[in-house]
Amino acid sequence: MGRTASELTVSHLANGTRVVVLFVPHFRVRTVRAIWQLQMGSRTSAQALLPMVLKRGTRLHPQTLELAAAFDGLYGADFDASVAKVGDAHLVMAELSVPSDAYLPEPVFGRALDLMREVVCDPALEGGHFRTEYVAQEKASLERTLEGIFNDKAQYAQMRMLETMFAGDPYSQTRFGTLGDVRALSGENVLEAYAEIRERAPLTVYAVGDVQPDAFATMASEVFGDLARREGPVLLPPPEGAVDRVKRLGEQQDVSQGKLVLGYRTAADIFDEDWSSLTVGNGIFGAFAHSKLFQNVREKASLAYSCYSRLDGFKGIMVVQAGIDPQKRDQAEEIIARQLADMQEGAFSDDEMEKTVRAMESQMLSMADSPSSLVMSHYELSLARRPVDLGERLRRLRRVTRADVIEASRGIILDTSYFLTSKGAN
Amino acid sequence: MDRRRLEPMGVDLFSTTYPSGLQAYVLVLPGFNKKYATLGTHYGSVDNAFRLGKGPVEDVPGGIAHFLEHKLFEEESGDVMGRFAELGAFCNAYTNYTSTVYLFSATTRFAEALALLVDFVQRGHFTKAGVDKEQGIIGQELRMYEDDPGWRVSHNLFDGLYQHHPIRIDIGGTLESISQITPELLSRCYRTFYHPSNLMFFAAGDVDPEKTFEIIGAHLVEAGPRPDIQVVRADEPAEAGQKRVVDRMPVSVPLFELGWKMDGGPRSLADDLAVSIMLETLIGHSSKLFMDLYEKGLLTDRFAARHFAGEDFSLAVMSTDTKNPEGLLDGIMEGVAKARSNGLDEEVFERVKRREIGDFIALFDHPEGTAYAFVETYHRGQDFCDVLDTLKNLSFEDVGRRLAALGERNWTVSVVTQED
Question: Sign of torsion, CA A382 A388 A394 A400?
Fold first, then answer.
C-alpha cells in the first residue's frame, strides 16, 4: 500500500481566505494555487478573459516581457492563470510553481510569491481600467481558442453533445463561455469580473510541497491579505434534470472518422452515499482499457480506435465517446447499449470488478504524486461535502459490492446521442 | 550494479548490463506512490530499410514498427492489458520515429508487473487472423490522424523538408502500406530489432534497484547471437525539398509550422541543448521577437519553438495557429535575419538558461517525465546524467553560433488552411 496521508493543515486569513497546506516533503517543486469560486452563466467569458489579461502585466512590470522575464529569472518559476468548470461553478485560478530553495543556488520562493501578489492584486491599469491593447489582444486570443475547438473533432463533438443535452443551462458552455459572448466583451466586463475577485468571490489558497504551514500562512497573508473580506467556499447543490425523451442529433463535416458522443443521466451523483458504487460501475463499463467498451467496441468488433466513458458527478451525467467508421453509428450504438444492459443485469464477472477496483485504487494513489490532482480533488470534494481523506476514500471504494454496482448502473439513462460524420454518410 | 548520484536533486541512478547486451537503469525517487517502468527497443518508424551484416538490404512496409507494437499486446494466453489490470497496473506503449517503448505504471505489485513486461516484450506471436484484425484497428487510428489538422501540418512539414529520409513517412504508415504487412514480415523485424542488445530498460519511482535487476535477469530468455543491424539511409541533401506546403481542410484557424533541417550527423548533448536554448532565446515566450509577433496578433500563446531530433536527424520547428500565415512567416524571417546580423540578447539567454535548469530539477517530481527524457537522450546516444552540467557550462557564444543553422535554403513552411 502506498502513502495515503499527506499532512493537511487548514487555516483562515483575517479576510476569510481559506489556506490549505499539503506538506509533501519529497516534492522538489513548491506549488501555490489560488482558487476563486464564481458561477457559470452570462459572465463566464468575462471571467475567462480576466486571468489572461492579468498575466499581461502588473503596475511594477507593466510590459508582458518584463513580467515574463522576472519569472524566468527565478529559475523557471512558472506562473499561470486560467479557469475551470466544476458543475455550475466557474473557478478562476492562479498558480505558481518553483523548485524549493534547497535545490537552487539562491532562495527565490519569497520573490516568486511577491510577483504572484503583483499579478493578482496590483495589475497594470490606466485610469482605473485594464490596458485597452491587452484586453483587445487577449480577447482575440480567446476567440481563437474557441474557434480552435472546431479543429479538434473529439473536443468539438463533446461540446456539441453538451450544448444539446444542456440547452439553456449554463453548463452547456465551455469553460471559456461561448464565441458570441467573447466577441461582445468589453474592458468594462473584465473589470467587473476583477471586482468579484477582489471583493467577494470565496478564495482558497493551496500550498503543496516542502512548505511549513505556519510560515506559509504568514506569506499568504502578505500576498492575499489586502483583498476584501469574504465568505468561505459555497457548497454546490446536487444536480437536477431528468430525461424527457432521447435527443438524437447528427452533423456532417468533411471528416474521415465519425465521432459518436452519448450523454446519459445518472441517478447517483457526487453528493450521494452511493457515489463510489457508480464510479466502480463506470470503471467496469468504460473507463479503462480492460472495460467492456474498449474490449467489445474496439477489441472484439474492431469498430473503433478508442471508446471510453467518463462521469461528471456534479451534474449527474455519464459521457461515452467513440471514434468510429462514419457508416457505423447504429452498430456502435447497439454494442454500447448492450454493454450498459449487461451492467444493469449484473452480467459482469468478479474478475472485471476486481480489475476495476484495483485500477481505481492505483489511480487514487497516483493522485498523491501530483500537486494538481491533490489540490483539485481536495477542493472539489470539499464543495460536495465528501470525505477528502484518501485513506477513507480507498476504504469506501473497497466496500462497494456487486449489488451496489448493479443498483447504481440501473440509474443510468440515455439522454442525448450526437454523431459527427462525413459528408454523404447515412 | 553501478550507481551515479545526481545533484542537486539528491537522487541515484543505478544501472547494469546483462550478458545478452540488455542495458537496464533504475532512477530511485523516494516518496512517490507511482512506479513507472519502460522496456523499449531502438527501433522506430525510420528503420524501414536495413541489412544484417553483409546481407542484402531489406525494405519493409511503412508503419511496421507501430504495427508490431500493437501485435505484441496480443498473446495466446489472453490479452496483456488484462493481465496488467489484474495487478492494478496500467500498461501502454508508444512508437515514434526512433523507438518503440512498452511501459506500465503501478502503485502496488510492481515486481509482478515487471515480470509480465519483460515476458511479453520477449514473446512475439503473429497470426494471419491477428494481422487482419489489427489492420482494421490501425486503419481507424490512421483515419483519426487524417482528420487532425495538427497531425497533417507536421506530417506535411517533414514531407516537404526531407527529400529521402524516412521521417517523411508517417509513424503509423498508410492504409496501403499496412495492407502489405504479413505475419512473416512481422516475425522478421521482431527477431531483428527486439534482440536484448537492442533493448533498454528504465524504471523510475520508489523502486528497489537490486531486486528489479534480479527480476529482469530471471525473466530474460536465451537470446541468439547479437544481430549486426545496419540501418540503411539514402543521402539527404542539405536543402529542403519544398519551400511551401499548403494543405486544405476545414479548420477554423489556419495551422502553421516552420521547420529548418539541420545537420543530422553525430551530435553531442551540448550541441542539442545549445540549439534548444538558441530557439528559446530567439523566439521563446520571454523573447522580444515572440512578444512583437504576439502583439501584432500573428501568433498565439500556443506557439512553440522546439528542437526535434533523433540519432540521424535534427530539425528546428516553430508551430502555432495563426490567422495570417504569410505575415507570420515574414515576421519570423525578419527576426531571424536580425538576430543573425546583431546576435542574440545575452540577458534573455541567461534567463532562459536559468529556467532550463529549474525545469530540469522539477522533472524529478515526475517519474514519467524522467522516463521520457531519459529514453530520448539515450536513443540519441547521449548521457542524461550530464544534462545539468552541460546546461550550466553552455556559453552565450556556443548558443549564438547555432543561429547559422537557421539558413536560407534549408527551411519549409507548412500550412493547413480552410478550403476556398
Answer: negative
Strands (E), B292-338: 304-310, 313-321
Write out the three cell numbers for B47. 528503420
Q: pTM for the whole thing?
A: 0.91
CB A84: neighbour CB atoms within 10 A?
A: 14
The beta-carbon neighbor of B140 closest among A72, A76, A323 is A323
- Give the CATH fold of the B244-418 domain: Cytochrome Bc1 Complex; Chain A, domain 1 (3.30.830)
Which residues between 294 and 333 in chain B have a beta carbon less than 8 angstroms from any beta carbon of chain A?
Answer: 294-295, 297, 300-301, 321, 323
The complex scores an ipTM of 0.86
CA-nearest residue to A143 within chain B is B253
Beta-carbon separation of A151 and B32 below 8 A? no
Topology at the third CATH level for domain B2-231: Cytochrome Bc1 Complex; Chain A, domain 1 (3.30.830)
Per domain, the residue ranges of chain B are: 2-231, 244-418
Cβ within 8 Å, pair B9-A72: no
Give residue for cell 458522443: A261
Mean pLDDT by 10 residues, chain A (426 residues): 73 96 95 98 97 97 94 91 96 97 94 97 95 96 91 94 95 96 97 97 97 95 95 91 90 92 96 93 95 88 85 97 92 96 97 95 93 95 86 93 97 97 80
Ordered mean pLDDT values, 10 residues apiece, chain B (420 residues): 95 96 97 96 94 93 95 76 90 94 95 96 90 87 87 96 94 94 95 95 98 97 90 92 95 94 91 97 95 93 93 95 96 97 96 94 95 93 95 96 96 89
B69 is catalytic: yes
* CA nearest to B367 within chain A: A369
- Rounded to whole angstroms, what are the CA distances from A299 to A254, A305, B117? 27, 9, 21
Tell me the three state secondary structure of residue B365. coil
